[in-house]
Each structure stands twice: as C-alpha cells, then as structure tokens.
Amino acid sequence: MTLSQPQTKRAEGVPVSSCWNCKGAVSGTHFCGACGKIQPLPAGMDYFAFFGLPRKLTIEPASFEGQFHMLSWKLHPDNFVRASEFERNLSLARSSELNDAYRTLRDPLTRVEYLLEFLKVRKEGTTKQQAPPELLEEVFELNESLDELRDARAAGGDVALLRGRLDAAAGNFQEKLTEVDAELARLGSEWDAAVDFGSDEAKRAALLTRMSEVLNRRSYIRNLVDGVQKEIADA
Amino acid sequence: MGRVVGIDLGTTYSLIAFMDAQSGAPKTISGPHASSLCPSVVSVDAKGKVIVGDDARDLLLTEPERTIYSVKRLMGRGVADIKDELKIFPFRIDAKSDSVIRVMLGDKSFTAPEISAYILRELKSWAEAYFKETVDRAVITVPAYFNDAQRQATKDAGRLAGLEVLRLVNEPTAAALAYGLHKQKRGHVAVYDFGGGTFDISILKLISTTEGDIYQVLATNGDTHLGGDDIDNALMELARGEIKTKYGVELDHRGEDVQTLRKSLIRAKHELSSAEKTLVEYPLGTKGMYVREITRKEFENLIAPIVERTMRPAKLALADAKLTPKEIEEAVLVGGSTRIPLVRKTVGDFFERVPHSELDPDEVVAMGAAVQADILESGVKTMLLLDVTPLSLGIETMGGVIAKIIPRNSTIPASAQEMFTTGVDNQTAIDVHILQGERELVKDCRSLARFQLKTPPGPAGLARIEVKFLIDANGILQVAAKDLRTDEQHTVEVQPSYGLSDAEIERMLEESIDFAEQDLAERQVIEARTEAESILVATDKALKNTGGNIITADERAEIGKAEKELRATMGGHDYKLMREKIDGLNAATEHLAEILMNGALQTALEGKSLDEF
Fold first, then answer.
1. Torsion over CA: B578, B580, B584, B589 (sign)
2. DSSP code of A10?
C-alpha cells in the first residue's frame, strides 16, 4: 500500500519542461509531441488546464464529457500494463488527476468552490458557520420550532402541528437556496465575461469575494435544510 | 510468459475463461467433470492433500469438518464481523485468529485467501491442461461492492495461487462487457447481479467514441452478504424448525446430516424455478421420514424479504447516477439467483422492462473477465472500462468524526491530498486512520488501515506533511506522504486492519512452493499414465485390425515385450520411468505404424474412408 510519486523522481539536470525520455520540449501537455511518451504532471497545473479549458465557470456538458472520454482512453492504466514501472506510475498519476478533475468540474457547485480554492480566495473545506444577518430572524424562529419539536417528542406529545410548521420552514429555506443558486449562476456569468474581456484584477477579485460570500450563505442554508429534514424524518 | 485468463472467483461456483483467438469470442474452460462450473468448495484430507470442486462438494456430506464452502464470505473480514454468519454457516474458526480469520479444516488452520488460492489453482490447472501451457496471469472479478480489504484479500489469493493479478474487475462491469459485445447496446444499462453470496447493482453508460467503446460506470451499490446462500438458509430454517417440532429431532448446524438436508433443499430451490411445486424428502433414521411439499407460492413468500433487500441498493444506485428507472434502456441479469422467477419479476417491475438474460448468468462474468484480460495482455484496446469506487474513503478527525476525502462512485483511479500537522508542541508522530463507508462516525464505518507520520520535534503546527491517498484501477488504496518542509518522500508503513501483511504472504508463498512441487509431480504421473493407456489401446487395436501378418514374428514379440514393460510401470509414481517405457513402445511399433499409415493412404485413395479401415 505504498505509492511512489513519479513527478519527484525526475532525472537530475533535466528541466521541468523537457521530456523525461527524449529530452524534447514539452509544455504541460499529457504526452511528448516528439516521442509520444506520457509526461509527469507539472506542478501547479489546475483542473481547467488539464482539460484544456479557460478558468471559466460555464462548461458545456457534452463537449466536457467528450473530452473526458477522449483523455480517459489515452491516459488510463489499461494502456500501460506492459510499460515500465515509471510509465505505469505516470499513467496512474495522470489518470487519477483526470478523474479528480472530472469529478470536481462536472458539478457547477464543486467547480466554483475549486476555482475559489485554487485562486486562494477560499481555503478548502472552510465555511463560516454564522448566520447571514438577513436570515437571523427566520433562523431564530426555526430553532425555536425545532426545540419545541424535540420537547414534544420527548414528552410523547402531538408532533403533527409542529411538523407542519417545520415543513413550511424547510420549504421556505429551500426557496432561498434556489435564489442563492441563481445568484451564484449570475456571478458565474459575470466572471466568465470578465475572463473573456480581460477585465482588471480589482473587478475579478471583487467577483471572487462576492462568490465566496454567496457560497458561505449557501452552505449555511444547506446545513439548515438538511438538519430540519433529518429532524422531521426522526419525529 | 504463459497464458492469460479471466477468472470469476464466486461464492458458490468459480469459472475460468479465455479469449478464443479463432472465434474472437470469450470461452469458458471445463474441468474433469465436463462442466465449466467449479464448486467453490475446498476439502483437506487427513494427509493434508487438498481437494477442490465437485469432489470436495461430495466430501461436504461425508467429511464436513474437513470441508468448507462459501469462503468468499470470509474474505477481508475480521472475527467480529462474522458473528451472525457463524450461527448459520458451519465455519470452524480457529481460536487463534487475530486480524485475519483462520478457519479449521481438520486439525489445520487456513486463512480465506489461502483457501481461495486453492480454488484458483484448481482452475489454473484446468486451463493448463486445456492449453498444454502454463497460465501465470489473470484478471479476477470481485463484487462491485467489495471494500478495500476484500479486494486486497482477493489479490493476495491470486498471488498465493501463483498468478499475477493484472486487474481486479467488478463482476457487474465484466458482465456488461460480455453483454455489450454480444448485443452492441448503447445508452444506460443496469446490471443486476444476484449471486450465491453477494448482490451488486451497477448503472453504466455505454458510449461509442471514434477510438472504441467506453463502458462508464455511473454508480454502483450492493450488499456483500446477500445472495442465494441466504435463500438456502431461509429454507433450512424452515425445515429444521419443522423437523424439531414435528419429529423432536434437533439437527446440529455443523454436522453432516444438515449438509444432506441442505443439498435437497437447494435442489428444491432449483426445481421451483421451473416447477410450480416440489417435494423434499429427508430420512430421520428411526424417527421416520420428513416429507414436505413446497409450492412456488410458499417459496416466494418465504424469500420475498430477501429479494426485497436488493431493491434498496438498486434505488440508491439509480439516485447516485441521477437517473430514473425509465431512463434505463436495458436491464441485465447476472448470477445464479436471477433464475428465480420472483427475482426476474421484481427487477422487471422496478425497471419497467423485461430484463435481459440471453447469456448464461453463471458464465457471463468469467467471459467478461477474459475479454478484459485479453485487452490488457495484447495491448490492443478495443474498449475501455471506467469503473468507480463503491464506498467513500475518509480519514478520522477529532471526536471520532469522518472527513470524506474521496466520495463513493468516483471514477477510479481517484486521489485526494490532505495536509497533516502537529497539534501540540514537540509532537513527533501523527496518527492517521483510514476508513471506508457512508456514515458520519468512525464507529459506523469500516476501518481500512492505520499509519503514523513521523516528524522531528518542534512547535505545534510547524510540521507540514502532505499525504496522497490514491485508489488504483483495482479499487485498492495506496498511500504516499511527503514532508513539504524538506520536500522528502516519507515511507508509510501501513498496517491493514483486516488482512495479511506482506511478510505473511511471503511465508505462505514459500510454503506453497513445496506444495506446488508435490502437485506438479502428481500431475505428471497422471499425465504419463493417461498417455500410456491411450498408446496401449491404440497398439492393441492396430494389432487386431491388421491380422498380424504384416509384421514379422520378431517385431510382434518386441511389441509384446515393450507393452508388458510399460504396464509394469503404470501402477507406480515414477513418471520418468513411465515416459521411458512409452518411448520404448513407440519405437517398437514404429514399423507397424508406418505400414498402417501407408495402408490408410492406399485405402483412402481407393475411395474408402479411414473409419472403414
């Protein structure tokens, strides 16, 4: 169960941008243009670049899937069963990176999260778990209803009425989730336009910050909805 | 290098198949009993000789203490995991078992990978007899829902059997492959694989590209402990209960009587797939005879809860694939338990279409494995399987909570990187605990392995160790660690929670080499004997047919002497001597053979067939 990481085993003196086999120049592509050998993953290559895509948030699903299948066909370990151990490890590293990139970029939500993490706007897996100010009142009411539900359940009382109230609250927050997603999509389009027209850094940074805030709100509401649904199911 | 094969290492039956170059289609290989199904039963006699397959299955009735079936249920599991199974299965667990279960066969104890290796060796010998060549590499199939430990155990079994395991392929995926080649299907396909001990459901997308076909698994789910065995056990429970209440006889669930009863109940189960009712008779000695009619209706009521248990994984897999039953173009049935009409109906109702079962549900998995083996061996890729990991991979965080790092149904190979640091000053080791499962808490998931990251003492939070977790194309985890401050690769000594260490496998391999030499010698004796028999028969026939006047009396005496000498060696075990005498007889009959050949030619030229000669 140990794994060697081929990208650190490069022969001494060979610059990063030259092929490990024929020493020809390679620039971040999967295979050497001259000898056709699979190449180590360059450090810092992002998932968008792996797919040959610009760092934009709109991805056309059919061509993305097509590209995934094409790259899978070329990079999969099946192709390297009879190759050297070095090349087998390169294939393993490349094809797992391909699948990680596919999994991340396929879903619009993980896609935007990844972009923000990659551009260091967000740290992976961190979200601020405090209620957005505009939701404070509703969250307060919801928590009250949840407490009452738990009390009623513990006392063996009638939970039907409370359940109805919670259902309504969950529905309300679900709607907010839809709104948040719409806002995220709108910001995504703005970001794409900013990339296309080469907008200045300040504008891009502002958009990224805004997206990060919306993601925090989304994560907060999502947890709330999940929690309520779990309580309802348990009741 | 020898031949490469595909192997279905099943709970009830195991099969071996290869890609037939002439027909371009996969073919299964039959054993000495003229069947491609090798019962996954292993028996060890008092002398330590291992018997596998049909012969071992017969010994289940007479030597139950030395014989084991359904060993696949024990692969990659710990003693605590199988408490419930021990109530139903007659496994005799060695009290000395630790992280790996050891089973007693007679007075010797074996691990599940060792027993599985005996089955693999048996199949390997079938293929070697067929090819007259060694077989040293294989693709072996596993249930899609097998976890890391179960996969590793299967790979270990292959290694112990002297096979290089080129790839572990998920059973439903292998079946889809065999079907796809057969029917040239496109679109979404559900493979419902209900075997002897495991249940899998896989949802695949079949895609045509300019390069070739891609079989992309979108989602998989299942239960590694749900199968035909459970149906047999339900029947057993019914019969044993009735025998106890009506006849006052209590059958020991590990005795030989119970195996006889089990055998008749399995026959009844098979009959009820085509008949509306069947009769079970079981003698109870002085207490008379247990006679029981079972109708299909009653049988279906009895097994309905078991069949129903397959529906939850089916729904979960569809939900993960983000599809509805209507969006599934084809449903394919795999595994012996899909012969049961209630199972077919349940699947048909769920997917709202008649499921496919054109290919033999027992053979289709091995055939798919043979196709994949051929692709890996030849390097000529005609299609590509993109499979997924069935269970989420996570690491333990504070408070016994799991942080998921690779979600279930991720296309494999898949990886994740995590950064580890120290929590207190001068901490020199960081413990990492890897788990598999969907639940939130460590206690509800499957522990895979633990390891320690070493770091020099320093202030808390200074250490920066990046660990890369990678699930390879076999669905098996690999781990690598790198100290980001020194950019040095860390060696990670991973201790599997359930499974054999490399050292244990090495030791077993050494032991098995002794075994292999013994096996090989024995096989050569049998082969030489078979050859001697056929040459003796041919010689006698030739002498009789020719009337004896075409060769000289001297020649005839010479042949008689050679025959006698060969016969004298055949009862012994010296295969070299036997070969020598075979050569002697061949030399003595050379002139006779020549005459016969000329005669045959002449006869043929005169328009007579060789048979008339």
1. positive
2. P
Tokens 């041919």 locate to B538
Contacts of residue A120, defined as CB under 8 A and 6 or more positions apart, other chains included, come to none
Q: Is A10 on the interface with B (CB under 8 A)?
A: no
Delimit the domains of chain B by residue range.
3-226+309-386, 228-307, 393-499, 504-612
Q: How far is Cα B169 from Cα B384, in angstroms, rounded to an integer? A: 12
Contact between chains at B415 and A100 (C-beta distance less than 8 A)? yes
* Tokens, residue A189: 């389009």
For residue B271, the model assigns a pLDDT of 95
Q: Quote the CA–CA distance of B564 and B553 in Å, as a whole number.
A: 16
Q: Does domain B393-499 have CATH number 3.10.100.10?
A: no
CA-nearest of B418, B413, B421, B364 to B388 is: B413
Q: What is the pLDDT of residue A235?
A: 62
The CA-based diameter of chain A, rounded to the nearest angstrom, is 77
Closest in B413, B471, B480 to A2, CB measured = B480
Contacts with B468 from chain A: Cβ below 8 Å:
3, 5
User: Using CA atoms, how far apart are residues B268 and A24, in angstroms rounded to an integer?
Assistant: 70
User: Distance between CA A102 and CA A123 in Å, rounded?
Assistant: 20
Class of domain B228-307: alpha beta
In three-state secondary structure terms, A107 is coil
| Same domain, yes or no: A137 and A92 | no
DSSP state of B277: E
- Residue that the structure tokens 């299907």 belong to: B185
What ipTM did this prediction achieve?
Answer: 0.84
- Opening angle at CA B494, ends B493 and B500, nearest 5: 115
Q: Per mean pLDDT, which range of A18-32, A202-216, B232-246, B551-565 is the poorest?
A: A18-32
3-class DSSP state of B6: strand
| Domain tally, chain A | 2
DSSP string, A71-138: HHHHHSGGGGTTS-HHHHHHHHHHHHHHHHHHHHHHSHHHHHHHHHHHTTSS-TT----S--GGGHHH
- According to DSSP H, which parts of B283-363 are helical? 296-308, 311-320, 341-351
Mind listing the pLDDT tens digit for each residue in B8-64?
Answer: 999 999 999 999 988 889 999 999 888 999 999 999 988 888 999 999 999 988 888
Residues of chain B with pLDDT under 70: 181-185, 253-254, 512-520, 546-549, 600-613
Question: Both A139 and A193 in a single domain?
Answer: yes
Cβ-count burial of B118 within 10 angstroms (0-12 exposed, 13-18 middle, 19+ buried)? Answer: buried
Both tokens of B234, joined, read: 């339900």
Fold that domain B504-612 belongs to in CATH: Substrate Binding Domain Of Dnak; Chain:A; Domain 2 (1.20.1270)
User: Three-state SS for B96?
Assistant: coil
Residue ranges making up the domain that contains A42: 6-106
Instruction: Give which of B85, B69, B87, B88 is closest to B77, Cα–Cα.
Output: B85
Whether residue B72 lies in the annotated active site: yes
Shared-domain flag, residues A156 and A220: yes
Nearest to B573 by CA among B613, B540, B524, B606: B524
Contact B153, B127 (CB under 8 A): no
Chain B contacts in chain A segment 199-218 (CB below 8 A): none
Q: Verify whether residue B49 is a known catalytic residue.
A: no
B3-226+309-386 — its CATH code?
Answer: 3.30.420.40
- Check: CB of residue B194 under 8 Å from CB of residue B306: no
Residue A27 lies in a domain: yes
